[in-house]
Automatic annotation (TrEMBL):
Coiled coil: none annotated. Fe cation binds at E30, H66, E116, E148, H151. One of its GO terms (molecular function) is ferroxidase activity. SUPFAM superfamilies: Ferritin-like. It comes from Candidatus Mcinerneyibacterium aminivorans. Gene3D superfamilies: 1.20.1260.10. The lineage of its organism: Bacteria, Candidatus Macinerneyibacteriota, Candidatus Mcinerneyibacteria, Candidatus Mcinerneyibacteriales, Candidatus Mcinerneyibacteriaceae. Keywords: Iron, Iron storage, Metal-binding. This is DNA protection protein DPS.
Length: 185
């Protein structure tokens, strides 16, 4: 636990319990999204699905990276992840990205887009809560927000056919904004 950092954050007006709840719920959403995207990626089949598979893989791996980057910050602030995976999954700040009953490429894209839109809202909220008061958490959340916004644009482009400015990453899971926060890279 980073005691001086916590003291300064509290002095700036942040309620540490509220912040930890937001971060743990966000970490849970990233963890469960990684799981569900694994299933969704498996169902991106056929000619149309094959072109989508790498993009789903990129978002999936970057969501895992988001979880890996959030976890140390949770512990630095004196929090911890729940010991029970079921309780942890139930805390997700976003709905589960279930495989649709009819797993067509279009329906899978709708699930992916909804999940990314929720994530954009989560990190916008954390950024707004920490802006000017907790620079470390703000910078981490802003980096994740950049990637989640790109994921949203990718899936919206694929669903609507309108250009988003999406360019292929050098390889899936690069996390150009979040990679500096991941301790194992």
């Amino acid at each position: 636990m980073a005691k001086k950092n916590i003291e300064l954050i509290k002095k700036a007006g942040i309620d540490i319990k509220v912040l930890l709840k937001k971060l743990i719920d966000a970490a849970s959403a990233e963890f469960t999204t990684y799981y569900y995207y694994t299933i969704l990626r498996a169902y991106t089949t056929g000619l149309e699905g094959e072109s989508l598979k790498e993009i789903v893989e990129d978002a999936r791996l970057e969501d895992r990276n988001h979880f890996e980057a959030l976890t140390p910050r949770i512990y630095e602030l004196g929090g911890s992840l729940p010991k029970d995976i079921r309780k942890f999954a139930d805390r997700a700040s976003c709905m589960d990205a279930y495989l649709p009953d009819e797993p067509t490429v279009k329906n899978i894209l709708k699930v992916l887009l909804d999940a990314e839109r929720c994530a954009v809202g989560v990190y916008t909220d954390i950024c707004n809560y920490t802006h000017g008061k907790d620079p470390r958490t703000y910078e981490l959340s802003a980096a994740i927000l950049h990637e989640e916004t790109e994921h949203e644009a990718w899936f919206e482009e694929l669903l609507t056919g309108n250009p988003s400015g999406h360019f292929k990453r050098s390889q899936p899971g690069v996390s150009p904004y979040v990679s500096k926060f991941i301790q194992n890279k």
